[in-house]
Amino acid sequence: MISYAWLIPLFPVVGVLINGFLGKRLGEKSGFIATLMAGLSLLVVLLIANEMIFGAGGKHTIHLWEWIHAGSFSVSLSFLIDPLSTIMLLVVSGVGFLVHLYSIGYMHGDPGFPRFFTYLNLFMLSMFLLVLGDNYLVMFVGWEGVGLCSYLLIGFWYEKKSASDAGKKAFIVNRIGDAGFLLGMFLIWVIADTLTYQEVSQVTSKFAVTINVLGIETTYASIIGLLLFIGAIGKSAQIPLYVWLPDAMEGPTPVSALIHAATMVTAGVYMVARTSPIYVEAALAMEVIAVVGALTAIFAASIGLVQNDIKRVLAYSTVSQLGFMFMALGVGAFTAGVFHLMTHAFFKGLLFLGSGSVIHALHHAPVEQQQDMRYMGGLKSKMPVTYWTFLIGAIAIAGVPPFAGFWSKDEILANAFFSGHTFVWAVGSIAALMTAFYMFRLIFMTFHGEMRVDPHAREHIHESPFSMTTPLILLAVLSVFGGIIPGFPPEKGWIHDFLAPSLAKVSQVTHHSSFNLISSAHAASADSGGHHGPEAIYLIVLAIVIAVGGIILAWSMYGKKSNIPDQIQQKFPGLYKILLNKYYVDELYQRYIVEPIYRLMKFLWNFDAKVVDGAVNGSTLVTVLTSRVSSFFDLRTVDGAVNGVANFVRFFSQVFKFLQSGMVQNYLLAMLLGVFLMLSAYLLQ
Amino acid sequence: MELPFFYLFSAGIVITSLFMITRSNVIHAALLLVLTFFFLAGLFVLAGAEFLAAVQVLIYSGGIMVLYLFSIMLMNVQVAVRIRQWHRQRFFAILILLVLGFEIWSVLGKGVFPKMKVWPWKLGATPGNVEALGSVLYTKFVFPFEVVSILLLASMIGAIVLAKKKIDS
Amino acid sequence: MIPLSHFLTLGAVLFLIGAAGVLMRRNVIIILLSIELMLNAVNVTLIGFSRQWADLSGQVFAIFVIAVAACEAAVGLAILISLNRDKTVMNVDEVNLLKW
């Protein structure tokens, strides 16, 4: 069955073709076709996973065809089936199928119905390519593909300006990250002469060469690691490029669940895990990843504490949870990171779909109130299925055993602690407390208490249709059992054995030999098969206390009637305002990055229009005057010189003008200038 | 025996193309370009590329250039004859092109001219040009060939979408 | 026999003439024609190499170049016609919406 892996991306291709060309004619039938295709992919994935998990396992390369071949550079389109890609495939196709199913109900009646499902299938195709590819270039193709689909789907309701703006923002911010990914890929090629994962992992010694960059002793691996991590920062919404993800909530909610919670945003985590053979040689890069992950986790969680938009809370929660995953990768616990990726896909997908169900029920309310939790409340009795599944998801993310989130999050924190990253561990624990708090704040504000819904919309509140509740129930089941089955007992669970062939292990020597920012020198080995002794027990107890404490705190502030939130708000108005406005990061970017660029462009244009042209005109004027005065002395000589100067200045002012003239011919001229320079370099060498 | 013809065709190509880029009447320019293409076809025959010569005449002169002429008829070209013909950047362009030409000449002189020996085209050893080209095109290059067909389709759709009149719905 | 250098020189000269046309003329149609000229200069070079190495790949490439030229002509002329419909634009430097 494994050799049929090419079927997995083929089904979405069929779906895209059918819905893309016949979508208008099919109408809402297109949803069933797309779902069928996603289901067939899921079927193939399940058969392959069955073989991988209960059968032979191992690594299998499915070579399709030679893609690029030029000189020594050769890339083939081939797929790699190994434990890591199996896990990712299960997550992507599983959640993907459920989201397709859910969208049939959610998007019912939308004029863009077929377009939506075309994009959704296109996304599945790209994500499969990303996960299946056996080399970085195929991954990059998928990487860009999911970026494109993300852009298309965020801006799905493009008639809304905020939606199309959010799409553009996501696209541009991701480009910044992609530049890093590309550079990292180039460097891998330069050093290893190959782009396939397996060949790269065989020549890791080439990456461990120590070099000196700007006075810092580091390795090639660290530079590659940092460059690739820039890509991951963009795609997985870490500090400082996370700003696109909260805005991405402008898209339809199933999209938020599939792309911006469960699958695409975890591509960065997958990429780092995939590159683990290089990262184990990259101590510096690992430290950076751990710190960035921890900071993102707490930063986003603190913003999530005060947001009132139900989807924004979940968006910041996603950013925060992605921070947890990077924390795990950074401290060398690759397995824990991938494990959290998996459980997070279950419960975050569930939470988003649940919030979509709530929004769907409120779609008769005024637009600005549909997603605002201050206008919800008391929905528990009206929507029992949504409530109970949502509650399960919230418990899972809060980290209460035996639900899924506990097992993965506890492993991350334990690994951070035992590898000596005490700072990372402390920050992560506080972020976990915040997580439990804001999730239950959301629950209490949405489902409990008195109903604050707009009176006209009240009678329309109803439980969602069958096609929407089924995915909720299935995901809820996964959120309950998806952690304990692969993850028990902690640190020695089945998933560790399964993923071991795919992920490199951090050896103590390389990890602590050079340039450690935070970790102490007496660190124990990380991810080496479990930690015993009382400390491990204390940590587990502490994690449970944190989770339950957060829930109780939320209950005492929002569950029962109290004015504590208002009091806090009044006591610390500045802090509240900063959090509510997301630390003003968007404003900072606007002020210090977007506007300066804009101003620079303006300045160049003004320079061109005023200074250069002015110089031309001014100098002509001045020289004409002078020539009048001195025409008496020698009319011809002076006039000639004057015109010469003027022409000279005009000539060069036109050269400057070419920079941004908007005329193709000027650009072609610049191109030829480049050709001239290259040829000159060749001739002069 | 081939060399005089080569010089003849080359001279024709260069002269007609120089005329072409200096015309202010676009119809004259297009017809001159057709002439250039005929000379080029002759050159291709000399180089043993008979099929390409036929393609040059049939597709290029017969198809693409007729498309140009039709489009010119559809447009209001009288305006264009009266306005200023030359772009402002022409002096700089000439400068760059001259330098570039000189550089290409030196590159050719550096790398190609001294070392090149002529390996004549083995006319007897290969099958007819069309047959050989066909067998290469449909075996080794079949995938690019199909891709080109998709490119043509895409440009066709693009051209229709761009050029059709907006229908008020 | 004709040496390769002759083909390459002719190709270079033709390319430069075409480039001169694109760079210096203002009339859009002439510019498009000049682009055809540049594409044909490439064809001359390809044919020359194909002959030199007795390898048909050069001719295959030339066929692809002709196909691309056909696409370019079709789309370019379509753009021209749509521009010409709204306002009689015949000069490239009047089409500068991408400015600043």
List keywords for this structure.
heterotrimer, B: 169 residues, mainly alpha, 0% strand, C: 100 residues, 3 helices, 77% helix, elongated
Structure notes:
Chain A has a two-stranded antiparallel sheet with strand order 1-2. A two-stranded antiparallel ribbon of chain A has the order 3-4. The two termini of chain A are 56 Å apart. Chain A has 685 residues and is mainly alpha-helical. Chain A is globular, with a radius of gyration of 29 Å. Chain A is built from 28 helices and four strands. Chain B is mainly α and 169 residues long. In chain B, 75% of the residues lie in helices and 0% in strands. In chain B, helix 1 (2-22) packs antiparallel against helix 2 (26-46) and helix 2 packs antiparallel against helix 3. The longest helix of chain B is centred in the middle third of the chain and has 25 residues, at 50-74. With 100 residues, chain C is mainly α. Chain C is elongated and about 55 Å long. At the B-C interface, helix 1, helix 2, helix 3, helix 5 and helix 6 of B face helix 1, helix 2 and helix 3 of C.
Instruction: Using the alpha-carbon principal axes, give the shape of chain A.
Output: globular
Gyration radius from CA atoms of chain A, angstroms: 29 Å
Greatest interface (CB-CB under 8 A), with counts per chain: B-C, 89 and 71 residues
Give the structural class of chain A.
Answer: mainly alpha
Low-pLDDT regions of chain C: none
Oligomer state equals: heterotrimer
The outline of chain C comes out as elongated
Structure classification of chain C: mainly alpha
Arithmetic mean of pLDDT of chain C: 84
What's the order of the H and E elements of chain C?
A: HHH
**Helix percentage of chain A:** over 70%
Please report which band the strand proportion of chain C falls in: under 5%, 5-15%, 15-25%, 25-35%, 35-45% or over 45%: under 5%
Strand order of the largest sheet of chain A: 1-2
Determine the number of helices of chain A (DSSP H or I, runs of at least 4 residues): 28
First CA to last CA of chain A: what distance? 56 Å
| Individual helix count of chain C | 3
Summarize the structure.
The complex is a heterotrimer of chains A (685), B (169) and C (100). Chain A is mostly helical. Chain A has helices at residues 7-26, 29-54, 83-106, 113-132, 136-154, 161-192, 197-202, 204-207, 220-235, 244-247, 253-262, 267-274, 276-279, 283-304, 310-330, 334-361, 384-398, 404-418, 422-447, 455-458, 466-487, 494-499, 508-513, 534-559, 564-571, 573-580, 585-657, 664-684; strands spanning 60-70, 73-81, 210-213, 216-219.
